[in-house]
Structure formats: C-alpha cells, structure tokens
Amino acid sequence: MTALSMESLAAYWSLPIVEANIVVFFNLLGALLLGLLVGYERSYHGRAAGMRTYGLVCLASSALTVIVGYPELWFGGHTHTTGTPDVTRVIQGIVTGIGFLGAGVIIKDGFTISGLTTAASIWTASAIGVMVGVGFYAAAILLSVMSAIVMMWISKLERWLPSRHAITIGLTFQPNAEPDLETLKRLLKDCEFEIAWGSLTIGATNNKQKWHFVAIPIKNNAKPSISGMYGVVQKLAGLEDFHLSFARN
User: Fold this and answer.
1) pLDDT digits (tens, 9 = 90+) for 6-21
2) What's the domain count of the chain?
3) The model's pTM
4) If both were cysteines, with which of 3, 119, 134, 220 could 74 make a disulfide (CB 3.0 to 4.6 Å apart)?
5) Domain boundary at 134, 160, 186, which?
C-alpha cells in the first residue's frame, strides 16, 4: 500500500478519525465560548485585548491541546517514518516561532494598542496548519470557519453588547504649571467620563508635567465623542498641548 493509494487516503476519513474530529469540534466550541466570555469582560472595561483576541487564543490553545490526546490517529493512523516521532516537540517549536512573528504585528502607541487580533489570528492559523499536518482535516476546517466567524462577526457582537468605549488622553502642561486632579475629574464627570485609575501615569520634561490616562464612560453604551472631549480638555488651566485617540485593538 502506497501513501497515495485509495486505502491510504481513505484512512484520513475513517470512522474513528471522524468521531475524534467531532469530539475536537465540541472542545473548540466550548473553548471559543469561554474565551469570548473572558474577552467580553476586558472589552467592557475598555482594555485593548477584547473578545476576538481572547476567543482566537482560546480556540488555538484548545486545538493544539486536544489533538495531543489522539496520537494513534495522527497521519491517518499510520506514520511514514520508522520509530515513534515526537510530533509534540515539532508543535512546540512551531507555536514558539509563530509567537515571535505575531509579536511583530503588535503596535503600541501610548495607551493605544493595535494588531492584537491580527497576532492572535496568525497564532490560530499555525494551529490550523498543525491540525492539517497531523491529518485532522475536518477539525482544521471547522477551526478555520470558527476563526473567520470570530474575526468577521464578533466585533459586531461587541458593539451590540453593553460596553464602555475608552478614549486615551495625553496632556502636556505649561512649564511650572500645577495641574489640579480634582478639576480634571470634575470636567470628565460633566461629560459622563471617569479616569481608569490603573492607567494614570505622570511624568515631567523641562518642568512640563505630562499626564497620560484612559477615560471610560460612566454609563454603558455611551457614545464617546473625540470632539466633545476636545472642548472639555481645553478648559484645563495651564494646558499647553494634548492628544486624544480611541483605545483600540
């Protein structure tokens, strides 16, 4: 029997392998739902990594873990080398290498981070490749479809669910100016925003204080306005320069 014989190719779609692919699918579905749940909590609080990023990472992690439980079904139930290959070491090397590749597409500008979903999708693509490589074709197809759904539709789900869209703010004050935190808090509250306190950083250059922080709406599903925030920030005494942008991933 050759590698391209009908009997050899049919082994990849044998009943035990199809049944294993179904089990893998349910694992992927559960991982996706739980990943989206955790990602929604982060998205709700205005963090950069949201539902799509967490969903894709959880999907890929589940895929790479669950196939390790079926080594006897890899490669259609037979290997093409003598001895027992350690495929898990190959998978480990792939995931590590793809991790460095994904890190290269993440861009951080102040509190704004972009490229997280792209990096997670690259990592998920490596998991799809691994599943195809070991012969879990049906599970790889399902993972591809689920990943595409996450990237195309979950962002719309995030907009439909209650959330708080964050705005990143950078303030530069005039030399020797003494900014008043309470005044800033009051101005933000007037437009129904508040400071995400874990994000506040204060520095100084040439006697000019520089404040950076993330402002989040007090109410759910509030529609943040950069132009509205522009008018609020301008009211700060001693302000020399400022920068506003939406926090995004």
Assistant:
1) 666 677 778 888 888 8
2) 2
3) 0.59
4) 134
5) 160
